[in-house]
């Protein structure tokens, strides 16, 4: 279950704390919403916007009428999942030509990116632009290095200065606020919809074929899971669904001021133990696939193969699996199961951070390098329905995609070259759009809106925080303990002992630190 803390810093010697409230407001770019392409479904309850029709590819709008880049070269280091395309490939050349840039990509394995990022930040030589994901900031050395190694972008972007870059100006302010590190705006954000929660996906085609009803409480889910599991047929109800247990039992992640006015960490709440106990029941009942118990293989493949009927993943999984199976298995139907409260009442999901990836520019970069990097980010943040977005997402027609029934379809060259590179520099306000499968975009947004109606924000919502280094290892063993407990390898008393030790080893003192921080900066909710 996620218990991550976003990290930031301050320009003080310790580089601890956060910047929020009025102090943050004066650092932020002026927000100017894009009016280029109106969505079919407007954002609501923290959802993304949705485009459910087919874009008129012959009448795409233009969001970057003039090239903002000068063609001066600069280097970008970014995580990459998959096989990176060759330097100077047709896709890279086409986007550079359109944006007026000349990017040398230093793509690194996304799985081991933290190791590379740490090594680069510890060195004296940095690429001009570096992509920093929030999940790598749990490493205190990396979070501290962000303040020391990357420049303040305020002189280029604060207030009305951002209007030179209209697509960056259209990024929501909450996302920009997460880019404040060390009292300065250092990160260009990749915004996320607050309601882009972890989704419990289910095989709707199999549910309908078997006559299953979608469970609406913790007990109903366990009962259904027992009926649906047949070890003999190698069909199991689910994979490891611990990631939704917090929403089912109403566990506030991280630190939060509860209804009684007291500040608590997630593991101190009784519902945290209840959520763990429920997941343990699923494992004990034998309804979880053995490979999920062993944490081997690919749960997504087990899901599409019908070996598990429910699995959890992020919002992107919905489209990826629907598109993957469209030809391979036309009967395949994926849907998002609505979250439920443990007792059958409303669930209590907590809002996702409004940004979780940033691109940053190294301190000491020349003005020309900075302006070219910002030109690239502005191009990458083009909204849906524009020529720039089409080029970033699909490449060049004829080479990287063809048009079939009015929708773009990637070619083999497109699939090998148009992968996650440019999209890591910046992103527009959250949206869902899948021209080839528009019903999936609608389903995604409508699910977010339904769940968003129950969503809460923690007291730390929208804040980028770095904790004092002395507390860095307090929770380092927690994830493994949770994994072991739900699989029956540890006892509840072991979890309770961990919590007691956590409090005495520094948790209570860390609480005092957070109290002071919240008293100074105010609550995020």
From TrEMBL:
Gene3D superfamilies: Periplasmic binding protein-like II. One of its GO terms (cellular component) is cell envelope. Residues 1-23 are annotated as: Disordered. Transmembrane segments: none annotated. InterPro entries: Bact_solute-bd_prot1 (IPR050490), SBP (IPR006059). It is found in: Cell envelope. Keywords: Signal, Transport. It comes from the Bacteria. Belongs to the bacterial solute-binding protein 1 family. This is Multiple sugar ABC transport system protein. It comes from Streptomyces lincolnensis.
């Amino acid at each position: 279950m996620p218990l991550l803390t976003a990290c930031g810093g301050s320009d003080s010697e310790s580089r601890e704390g956060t910047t929020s409230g009025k102090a943050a407001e004066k650092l932020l770019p002026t927000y100017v919403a894009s009016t280029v392409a109106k969505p079919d479904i407007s954002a609501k309850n923290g959802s993304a916007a949705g485009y459910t029709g087919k874009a008129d590819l012959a009448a795409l709008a233009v969001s970057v009428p003039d090239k903002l880049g000068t063609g001066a070269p600069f280097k970008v280091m970014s995580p990459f999942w998959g096989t990176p395309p060759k330097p100077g490939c047709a896709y890279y050349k086409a986007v550079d030509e359109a944006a007026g840039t000349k990017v040398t990509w230093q793509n690194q394995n996304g799985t081991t990116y933290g190791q590379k990022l740490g090594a680069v930040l510890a060195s004296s030589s940095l690429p001009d632009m570096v992509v920093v994901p929030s999940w790598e900031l749990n490493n205190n050395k990396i979070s501290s290095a962000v303040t020391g190694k990357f420049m303040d972008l305020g002189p280029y972007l604060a207030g009305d200065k951002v209007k030179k870059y209209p697509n960056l100006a259209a990024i929501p302010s909450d996302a920009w606020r997460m880019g404040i590190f060390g009292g300065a705006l250092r990160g260009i954000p990749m915004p996320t919809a607050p309601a882009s929660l972890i989704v419990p996906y289910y095989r709707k085609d199999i549910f309908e074929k078997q006559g299953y009803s979608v469970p609406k409480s913790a007990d109903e889910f366990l009962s259904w899971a027992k009926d649906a599991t047949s070890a003999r047929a190698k069909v199991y109800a689910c994979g490891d669904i611990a990631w939704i247990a917090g929403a089912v039992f109403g566990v506030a992640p991280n630190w939060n001021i509860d209804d009684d006015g007291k500040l608590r960490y997630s593991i101190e709440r009784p519902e945290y133990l209840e959520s763990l106990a429920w997941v343990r029941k699923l494992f004990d009942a034998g309804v979880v696939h053995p490979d999920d118990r062993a944490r081997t293989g690919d749960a997504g493949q087990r899901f599409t193969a019908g070996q598990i009927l429910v699995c959890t993943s992020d919002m992107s999984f919905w489209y990826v699996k629907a598109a993957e199976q469209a030809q391979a298995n036309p009967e395949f139907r994926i849907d998002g199961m609505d979250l439920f409260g443990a007792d059958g009442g409303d669930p209590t999901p907590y809002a996702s951070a409004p940004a979780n990836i940033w691109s940053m520019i190294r301190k000491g970069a020349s003005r020309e390098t900075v302006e070219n990097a910002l030109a690239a980010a502005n191009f990458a943040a083009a909204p849906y329905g524009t020529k720039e977005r089409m080029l970033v997402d699909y490449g060049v027609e004829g080479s990287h995609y063809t048009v079939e029934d009015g929708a773009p379809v990637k070619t083999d060259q497109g699939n090998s070259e148009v992968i996650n590179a440019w999209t890591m520099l910046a992103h527009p306000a959250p949206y869902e759009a899948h021209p080839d499968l528009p019903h999936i975009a609608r389903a995604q947004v409508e699910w977010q809106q339904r769940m968003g109606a129950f969503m809460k924000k923690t007291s730390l919502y929208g804040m980028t925080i770095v904790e004092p280094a002395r507390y860095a290892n307090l929770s380092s063993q927690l994830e493994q303990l949770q994994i072991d407990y739900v699989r029956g390898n540890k006892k509840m008393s072991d979890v309770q002992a961990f919590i007691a030790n956590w409090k005495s080893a520094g948790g209570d003192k860390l609480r005092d630190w957070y109290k002071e921080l919240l008293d100074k900066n105010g609550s995020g909710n």
